[in-house]
Design brief:
326 residues, mainly beta, Neuraminidase, 4-stranded antiparallel sheet, 3% helix
Amino acid sequence: MTGAAAIFVALVALTSSASAAYPGKPGPIAYNRYEDVGEIVGETEQVHPEGGLFAHGPRVEERPLRLTSEASDGDPAYSPNGRLIAFASTRGQAGLRRTSQLYLMRSDGSGVRQLTDDPAGAGGPYFSSDGRRLVFVRSRHLWLLTIATGAERQLTFGRGAESEPVFTPSGRRILFASSRAPAGGGGSGGIWAVGSDGRNPKAVVSRPGVEMSPEVSPDGRRIAYVVQQSPYFGYGDLRIARADGEFVRSLDEKPGPECRPCYGSPAWAPDGKHLAAVEIWNNVGSSALMVMRPDGTHRRSFDEGITGTEGSGEHVRSPAWGSAAR
């Protein structure tokens, strides 16, 4: 595997992230964009990513606005009022033992401040419905952070690995992807829900396959999620289910054993009329920020990566759709 491909695979492992889906007027879409930059040192090519977080207005003809300049900035999540963005990053760290930490900034990219500083790291932030707390992932479990005080509380325990938590719009439940098996068997992993107090975990979507990346619609009635069907973890068939987990439809353009293209990191528009997602063609690893209606029609590319056959080039990941600031 080339250096470029290795970096691509490593960063793809971080692509699955939750994004705010609270009711409101559609505002910009925040996402990470990075480019693999290579340079020859002696007789060896060394590759490093350059990029950061960008925001693209809700209309396709608008131009992306750069928010940050750190390639590791990812997992953006808008506050319910659209004024703040929480994100995860390894910024300011060097070496191989870098750990992701949580940061907070204004939605225009100003006022960045660090929220966590734990050797175990932190990632996948998502705002509570009142905007005062963040649910996040640390050491394969869900934690809750009170922004004003910095107080943290662990929500999930056990041997399962949890990721990609999202609050429901009511704030009463948290959905997440988990490797834990539901009671009575019937497969392992899937989409789970737990009370915002950490009580009563329950499987919501658990079928053969690997379900991940849940995103609850602003009205709380639908769940967008991904079923793994790609060599790049975090991408697959994009599906819609009712809030109780009952399957509704697949948005795969060409149903079959492999998704073509594959999608990852779905994000509802605040009015529930569109979905944003990362589109990837698994034969070359190219990625694009796509926006479509919930029935899969009217697909439009908002931003595109330019990718070679070995995974090098430009990539987009981790979209979050915020409401117009109010």
